[in-house]
Each structure stands twice: as C-alpha cells, then as structure tokens.
Amino acid sequence: LGLLAARHTPADSVPAPDERRLQAAEDAITAGEVDLARDIAREVLTRATVPAERVRAWMVVIEAAGQALGEVDAVFPQVLADAGDDPRLLALVHYQLAWREVVVNGDFAKSRQEAAHAAELAARGGDRRTELMALAFQSSTETLMGHPDAPATIRRALQEPQDPDVASHHNGAAMARFRWLLMSDQLPEARTAITALLREARRRGMVESEVHFSRLLADTELRFGHCGRALDLAGESLRLARDSGIGESASAMLASVAEASGGDVDRALALARESADHAEVDGDQLYLSLALAALGYAQLVAGDAQAAVHSLRRVRELEQGMGITDPARGRWQGDLAEALVRIGEPGEAQELINVTRVHALRLNRASVLAVL
Fold first, then answer.
1. For the residues of 58-124, what is the DSSP string, one character each?
2. Which residues contact 11 (CB under 8 A, 6 or more apart)?
3. What does the alpha-carbon distance between residue 143 and residue 326 come to, in Å, rounded to a whole number?
4. What is the Cα–Cα distance from 23 to 218, expressed in whole angstroms?
5. pLDDT per position as a tens digit, 279-300
6. What is the pLDDT of residues 37-54, one digit of tens each?
7. Is the separation of the CB atoms in 137 and 103 below 8 Å?
8. Contacts of 310 (CB under 8 A, 6+ apart)
9. InterPro entries per the record (predicted)?
10. How many helices and strands (H and E) does the chain possess?
C-alpha cells in the first residue's frame, strides 16, 4: 500500500513520493520482507540528495542485512559522510556501529561505548526513539558483560516518555528488562514480560520480533522445566524464522537445546550444527558462541564428552575474547566441567568452577551456582 501511495503521489507533495517509499521499506523490514525493503531503499538512494533521506535509506540497507553486518561494511563510510555533523543522523549511524562492534568484531566494550554515544547524540538531537533504542542496547551489552551499571541503564531506558514502536521491539527496553529478569532467575516475572511482548508483536505484525519472542518464551519454559511446551514454541519460532529468513541461527540454537532437553538428541545435534553454520556464514560471533554452547550440550547428552569439551572450550575462548563475564548468558560452564571430568581432566574442571563461581557470586546468579 505504501508503494502504491508513492506511485500516486505528485513529485511536489508533502510527504514526497520517496518519503512514502522509505516508509514502505521500513514497514517491509517490520513485516520480515527484507529483500523488498533493501530493493526499495537502494532505488531511493539512486536519486536522493537530502542527507536525512539518504541516511534513512542506508539504515534500511543495514537492517536488511540482519546478523550478516559484515556484508555491509562498505556502507558505513558512505552513511557517515551523508550524516555530516547532524546529531540526529549521527545517532542512527552510531547505533548501527554499536551492533557491528558486537556482531562482527565481538567487542562488547567498544559496542557499549558506541551505544552510549548514540544515546547521547540522539538526546542532543531530540530523537527520543533512537535514544531509547541505544539505551536499551547499552543495557543489554552491560548485562552480558556483567557490568554494574546495567540495572541503572535499564531504568533510564524505561523512563518516560516512551515510544510504542520501541516498547514492543525485540531490541527495545522491555526486551532488555526481560533478559535481565531471565538471567537473574526471576522466572515468573520473565514469563509475564515475554508473553506480553509476544502478544503485542503478533498484534502489530512484527515478524522479526515474533521470531525472537517465541524463541525466548521457549527458553523461559525450558528454565521452568516445561520441555513439551518449550519444544512447541521453539519449533514455532524455527518455522517462522525459516519462512522469513530472519533469526535462523538463534531459532535453530534454541530448538537444539529444547530437543536435547526433552526431545530427540540426534535432531538436537543437527540443529546446533545448522545454527553454528548460519552464524559462521554471517560472521556473527555473538550467536556462534551460543550455537556452539548448544552443540556442546547436545554432545554431552549424546554421551560424546570429548566432542562436548572441544565445542565448549571454543565457547569459552569466544566469550573471553568478547568480554562476556556473566555465566548466566549461555550457562555452558557446568556442561564443560562435567565433560572435562568424564574425559579425565578434573583439574581443569575445578579451575573452571572456581573462576565461574566468582562471577556468579558477584552477580547473584543462584541457578548457575546450583549447577556448579
């Protein structure tokens, strides 16, 4: 409908035809039509001269890349040039650079700095939506890093005024709060939060958000021990991810964990490898570590302790490189310790437990401590 409106809009109208096309491209992103969104944005870029229009179009191109942000590296110098010294436009660019740092480079500290800078620029430019998204992302990186500022940043991201699009977005403040609740073992509150987000995403037709929220509700049900319900939700998320081409690595990863916990271990192994392959192709270190953690868990359940050790040592190496210190992120440490004992490496297992306990005690991760 947006494209149809653009075709029937006179060139001198306000909003102009290309503004309507960009709105259509953004709607296509929300609806999971990433190829269409990218094509519309690229077409607008062939003739747009106004910096705000060009930056808006570049944002669509970047978002359409999904987790494969390494594929659009060449875009960033161009969009920075188009943004000039406008704080509103620069905020949009630095928000995407924050994502690039964590996904492509695996650098949480630099990502946190970029997100904080984006929030500051957005506040200066009066762009509340981008400020909220940047604060939400900053709080998420801080949570995974085990940074002490995480709760305060989440509170800032939840302050009024809010934006309804951000409130129900899979990278918004409510999502950051859910992640904090889940990692803090506040399972009833986490379930309530993610159920409300999933309901709103379905109501608004937000396909990417629905993929992620279905997966995260499945993860929450797994924490409760409801494996049957988790299998159903994980399967639903995976089907939607495959249909839309969005979030396939993440959905396959969680489906693998659900299968290993209460389903078919061979299917769990296949799904974990599929997830790792997707992440490798995308150059996505963030989900590669989670996929390998799922693979190690499935290998342990299957009785292959040596393979589990190989996979989970890689996870440890990746997380150390990214600066992730919160053991509640992937909860793989207990699996690696058990696998190490099985292959006759109790010393390494004890050292791992000792190091993990320090972080778990500091962050009050009771369920991690229980496993250790």
1. HHHHHHHTTT-GGGGTTHHHHHHHHHTT-HHHHHHHHHHHHHHHHHTS--HHHHHHHHHHHHHHHHH
2. 17
3. 7
4. 32
5. 998 888 889 999 999 999 999 9
6. 999 999 999 999 999 999
7. no
8. none
9. TPR-like_helical_dom_sf
10. 21, 0
Other CB atoms within a 10 A radius of the CB of residue 58 amount to 27
* Chain-centroid distance, C-alpha 283: 14
Question: Which two tokens mark 89?
Answer: 């436009």
- Pair 41, 58: CB distance under 8 Å: yes
**Residue 68: pLDDT band by 50, 70, 90 thresholds?**
confident
Can you tell me the distance from the alpha carbon of 203 to that of 132, in angstroms, rounded to the nearest whole number? 22
Q: Say how many C-beta atoms besides its own lie within 10 A of residue 339's C-beta.
A: 26
Distance between CA atoms of 46 and 172, rounded to whole angstroms?
A: 31
Which amino acid, one-letter code, is at 196?
Answer: A
Radius of gyration from C-alpha coordinates of the chain = 21
Measured distance CA(251)–CA(216) in Å, rounded: 9
In this structure, what token pair is assigned to residue 138? 């900053």
Quick check: 20 and 32 in contact, CB under 8 A? Answer: no
CB within 8 Å of 355: residues ≥ 6 apart: none
* Residue position matching structure tokens 């969104």: 37
Residue whose token pair is 């947006």? 2
What would the DSSP string read from start to end of 120-187?
Answer: HHHHHHT-HHHHHHHHHHHHHHHHHHT-TTHHHHHHHHTPSSP-HHHHTSTTSHHHHHHHHHHHTT-H
Distance CA 270, CA 276 (A): 10
Consecutive H or E run containing 269: helix 265-282
- For the chain, the first-to-last Cα distance in angstroms comes to 55
Ramachandran region, residue 82 (left: φ > 0; alpha: ψ -120 to 50; beta: rest): alpha
Structure tokens given for 316: 């440890």
Closest C-alpha among 308, 302, 202, 214 to residue 254: 214
Q: What is the pLDDT of residues 214-269, one digit of tens each?
A: 999 999 999 999 999 999 999 999 999 999 888 899 999 999 999 999 999 999 99
